[in-house]
Specification:
mainly alpha, elongated, about 120 residues, 4 helices
Length: about 120
C-alpha cells in the first residue's frame, strides 16, 4: 500500500471508530423505545433509513450514520422482544384456559392478546 492509501485507511478507521472511542456520556444511545407503539414506530422509521443508507455509497460518514441509527433499532428490538415475551405469556393463558374449558379466561386473555398483538401487526 502506498502512503496515501495508508493515510486514507487510517482516516476512515478513525471516522468509523470515533464513536466507539467516546466516553459513555458522549456515546450515541439512540432514541428510546419506552412503549410498544414507540418501538414499532422507531423500528419502521429506522429500518427505512437503513435501507436508504444501504442503497447509497457506504462512505465513512455513511458508516457513522449507520452506526448511530443501529442504536435506535437495537432499542426498538429490545422493547419488541420484551413485549413479545408478554404476548407469549398471555397467549399461554388462553391456551391453558381453553384446555380447562374456562371461557371467562379465554375471552379476557384472548382479547388482551389480540389488542396487544395488533399494536405490532394488524
Amino acid at each position: 500500500m502506498t502512503f496515501l492509501h495508508n493515510l486514507t485507511a487510517v482516516a476512515a478507521s478513525l471516522l468509523i471508530a470515533g464513536p466507539a472511542l467516546a466516553s459513555d456520556n458522549d456515546h450515541f444511545k439512540g432514541h428510546p423505545a419506552n412503549t410498544l407503539e414507540q418501538a414499532v414506530a422507531n423500528f419502521s422509521e429506522y429500518n427505512n433509513k437503513l435501507e436508504k443508507m444501504l442503497a447509497g455509497d457506504l462512505t465513512p460518514e455513511a458508516m457513522n450514520e449507520v452506526h448511530q441509527l443501529t442504536y435506535t433499532l437495537e432499542n426498538a428490538l429490545q422493547k419488541l422482544d420484551d413485549e413479545i415475551d408478554v404476548l407469549e405469556d398471555t397467549l399461554e393463558k388462553v391456551h391453558k384456559a381453553s384446555e380447562h374449558a374456562d371461557p371467562h379466561t379465554v375471552r379476557s386473555a384472548g382479547e388482551k392478546y389480540l389488542s396487544d398483538s395488533r399494536k405490532i401487526i394488524k
